[in-house]
């Protein structure tokens, strides 16, 4: 996710902003920039690529031209618009008097861009963020709020929809920064005669340990010796002061022991951000859609290609698309796809799912599909990467950079994105009524809050892992949409704990794998909702009885209120009720914890970097 730093004080802002950006490099980014003012024109530098590119640019323009004690800085992880210089932040207004940096998604940016264009303002980037700079300049230059920085900022903030942390700088007011947050974090760092802003404390931890967390929909007016917190309507608000007791390494991980644990906790936001803006005015929309509704309507078969966790998310795409759209969906591990010579034509949609967008197997599958005339739709977490570039259309997941090698938040975001694709297809083909689509979208939007509740099972899972200790092998069983969850749970355990783990459809057990069951073998069972396909539920209850009778220790994941499973569970992990199709977004979470905890007992002390694995696999 983007990193933000702000500084108002007595010292030169440039080195402070650069240090802050360096400390936030761990978040992942594809471009960076800084803006500085001392009231004689805003100076800004920005560059795509690593911070070194920005520093090279600073050397070119000379530090003398970047003097000022008020600065804002940004590392960007591209969401709207490619990772190129023009799209890097800060963005300046048409009159050059305003600079902004933004983290998040401005959902109504398209209509705001239209409004600005109609007023004769030229947009210089492809981002959703740039509109905020021009809107602020207009509010300050004309109308009721003219000449009033605070009133203009509030007026603009009240027009923005979506999730954002945003910092405003105005050249007529070089002694202050106005900043706001909605749904994404913003922290004030309180120094001696200087103040800081950061998207996390790593931005300013070297300078002060005194911090104030802003609440939801709060605005802060920051000066060197004071800060004032407001609500969006201008009424006073208060933040939550706290002392930072982390060092930089701990701050980068948000206080968690590993990036992976931090990323597990970021899953509500990853799903929420992925869903944001894709259902508007009663319609589901994709991102860069060079596929028209007519194209989608014409599709008569879907192929899903992906690897590893992305493949497991693709299995869920199959369940959803076949159920909602009634077209056949085939799914193939990307490395097998093109060598098998699958039958593709111009009525085939290939859904290519990849967190990195660089996985060679998936990329080659995309190329093969395109060469056969199929349409390719990418689901990807990395803007500007190769797979979306070569696809006909793309739907970006907004999980933010995933640093832990084992996928967690990107996987859940992929599932959410795949469901959006399913709904877009159902809409184009008319296989679901608009109200049915609205209902499904609503249940998707309820998922982030439910994930928050599932995250509370961490302590329980730690306890289970402690009792299990260094297990040698483990089985995972599921039925229906619980089957891909079982596969994902087993993959996480293999990756992190380096032990043998296997996921099966529970019904397949009796055809062989049941021979593996022995005394004390831990078996995880993902139980479908008793309110969904009831026959599946009762069948899996029988499956649990079968394995318990043969000595297995069962870790059962079941909905709240499902009492039928209680007698057969050695451990019962509860997840909130949800429609069947949504259950994987909840049931996966305890399995991520379980793998992370068991890894520790099996001797893996660095779950962020499991042995032999790479985050981006660019060889076939
Ligand atoms: C598992 C994992 C891998 C990736 C796979 C595909 O935790 O991370 O299995 O899912 O290598 O990577 P992407 O999604 O980047 O194509």
TrEMBL record:
GO annotation, cellular component aspect: cytosol
Regions crossing the membrane: none
Record keywords, A-Z: Aminotransferase, Cytoplasm, Glutamine amidotransferase, Repeat, Transferase
EC number: 2.6.1.16
Subcellular location: Cytoplasm
SIS domain mapped to chain residues: 292-431, 464-609
GO biological process: amino sugar biosynthetic process; carbohydrate metabolic process; fructose 6-phosphate metabolic process; protein N-linked glycosylation; UDP-N-acetylglucosamine metabolic process
GO MF, any single term: glutamine-fructose-6-phosphate transaminase (isomerizing) activity
Domain Glutamine amidotransferase type-2: 2-225
Enzyme class, spelled out: transferase
InterPro entries: GATase_2_dom, GFAT, GFAT_N, GlmS/AgaS_SIS, GlmS/FrlB_SIS, Ntn_hydrolases_N, SIS_dom, SIS_dom_sf
Domain of life: Bacteria
Active site: 2 (nucleophile), 615 (for fru-6p isomerization activity)
Catalytic activity from the UniProt record: D-fructose 6-phosphate + L-glutamine = D-glucosamine 6-phosphate + L-glutamate
Description of how the protein assembles with itself and partners: Homodimer.
General function of this protein: Catalyzes the first step in hexosamine metabolism, converting fructose-6P into glucosamine-6P using glutamine as a nitrogen source.
Name this polypeptide is given: Glutamine--fructose-6-phosphate aminotransferase [isomerizing]
């Amino acid at each position: 996710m983007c990193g933000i730093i702000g500084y108002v004080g007595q010292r030169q802002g440039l080195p402070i902003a650069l240090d802050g950006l360096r400390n936030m490099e761990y978040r992942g980014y594809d471009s960076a920039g800084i803006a500085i003012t001392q009231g004689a024109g805003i100076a800004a530098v920005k560059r795509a690529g690593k911070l070194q590119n920005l520093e090279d640019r600073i050397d070119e323009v000379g530090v003398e031209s970047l003097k000022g004690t008020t600065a804002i800085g940004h590392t960007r992880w591209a969401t709207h618009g490619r990772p190129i210089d023009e799209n890097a932040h800060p963005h300046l207004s048409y009159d050059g008097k305003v600079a902004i940096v933004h983290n998040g998604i401005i959902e109504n940016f398209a209509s705001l861009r239209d409004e600005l264009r109609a007023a004769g303002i030229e947009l210089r980037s492809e981002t959703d963020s740039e509109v905020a700079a021009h809107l602020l300049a207009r509010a300050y230059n004309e109308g009721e709020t003219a000449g009033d920085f605070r009133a203009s900022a509030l007026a603009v903030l009240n027009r923005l929809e979506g999730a954002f942390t945003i910092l405003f700088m105005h050249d007529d007011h070089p002694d202050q920064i106005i900043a706001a947050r909605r749904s994404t974090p913003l922290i004030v760092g309180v120094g001696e005669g200087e103040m800081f802003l950061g998207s996390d404390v790593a931005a300013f931890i070297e300078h002060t340990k005194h911090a104030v967390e802003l609440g939801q929909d709060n605005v802060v007016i920051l000066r060197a010796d004071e800060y004032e917190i407001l609500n969006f309507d201008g009424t006073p608000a208060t933040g939550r002061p706290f002392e930072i007791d982390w060092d930089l390494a701990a701050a980068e991980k948000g206080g968690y022991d590993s990036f992976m644990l931090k990323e597990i906790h970021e899953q509500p936001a990853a799903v929420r951000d992925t869903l944001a803006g894709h259902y508007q005015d009663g319609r589901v929309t994709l991102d860069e859609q060079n596929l028209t509704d007519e194209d989608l309507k014409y599709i008569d078969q879907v192929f899903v290609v992906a690897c590893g966790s992305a493949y497991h998310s693709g299995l869920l795409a199959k369940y959803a698309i076949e159920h909602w759209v009634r077209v056949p969906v085939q799914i193939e591990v990307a490395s097998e796809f093109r060598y098998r010579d699958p039958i593709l034509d111009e009525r085939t949609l290939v859904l290519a799912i990849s967190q990195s967008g660089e996985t060679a197997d998936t990329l080659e599958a995309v190329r093969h599909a395109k060469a056969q005339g199929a349409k390719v739709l990418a689901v990807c977490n990395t803007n500007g990467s190769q797979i979306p570039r070569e696809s006909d259309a793309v739907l970006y997941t907004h999980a933010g950079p995933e640093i832990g090698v084992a996928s967690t938040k990107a996987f859940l975001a992929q599932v959410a994105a795949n469901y959006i694709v399913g709904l877009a297809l159902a809409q184009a083909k008319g296989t679901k009524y608009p109200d049915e689509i609205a209902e499904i979208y609503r249940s998707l939007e309820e998922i982030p809050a439910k994930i928050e509740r599932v995250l509370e099972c961490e302590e329980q899972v730690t306890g289970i892992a402690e009792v299990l200790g260094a297990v040698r092998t483990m089985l995972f069983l599921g039925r229906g949409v619980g089957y891909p969850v079982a596969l994902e749970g087993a993959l996480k355990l293999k990756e992190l704990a380096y032990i043998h783990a296997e996921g099966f459809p529970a019904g397949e057990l009796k055809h062989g794998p049941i021979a593996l069951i022995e005394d004390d073998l831990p078996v995880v069972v993902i139980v479908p909702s008793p309110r969904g396909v009831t026959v599946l539920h009762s069948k899996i209850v029988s499956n649990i009885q079968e394995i318990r009778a043969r000595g297995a220790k069962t870790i059962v994941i079941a909905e709240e209120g499902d009492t039928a499973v209680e007698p057969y569970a050695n451990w019962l992990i509860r997840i909130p009720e949800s429609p069947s199709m949504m259950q994987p977004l909840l049931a996966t979470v305890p399995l991520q914890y379980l793998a992370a905890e068991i890894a520790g007992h099996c001797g893996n002390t660095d779950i962020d970097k499991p042995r032999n694995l790479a985050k981006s696999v660019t060889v076939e």
